């Protein structure tokens, strides 16, 4: 009897304190930080401590009454055309509506609803794949929205969280759990002085590749200053232009 009671107690304790993966509609997000923004980030490859600039990312965040649109125009060195990446979400619960991405390697069009539909055009292989996947609506965020989503969490030192996202790549697609591994207070210096920031360490899987990412996020207004990305082989730095 004591053994049965201990088992029930353990199950109850685990159920109460287990961390569920966040989905659209959860009320933890600090939506007061959703504001119109326009800014540029510089994209670097880091080798042996040296930075090599490869692109500029121009971001426009446009919150409307019902939707949030995030558009990235990416100016890549020696590229003849600008890369485009856009994500639209529902403002009320941050669930995905549409995603569009077009670069030298591929073009992706996704529409989210009762199922995920659209197309994936591999420009290298000259092959287009039609997308039609049944995924429970309202139970995930667009993985492309995740870098913005991390700016809206209620941080404190030692904070952790799991976020449910959907990611598409022909080799690997479906629900992916992105993880906030650690949060600590820190500083970031730019031309305006020393800024108090949250340093947010995540483990993210995008297009089948798992990377550790560190975000440097202003504590006062959740402005993003910097991302440090390591995918197991390559170190990448994305830093806000002064």
From TrEMBL:
Residues 1-18 form the signal peptide. Keywords: Signal. The keyword Signal applies. Pfam families: DUF3108. This is DUF3108 domain-containing protein. The lineage of its organism: Bacteria, Pseudomonadati, Bacteroidota, Flavobacteriia, Flavobacteriales.
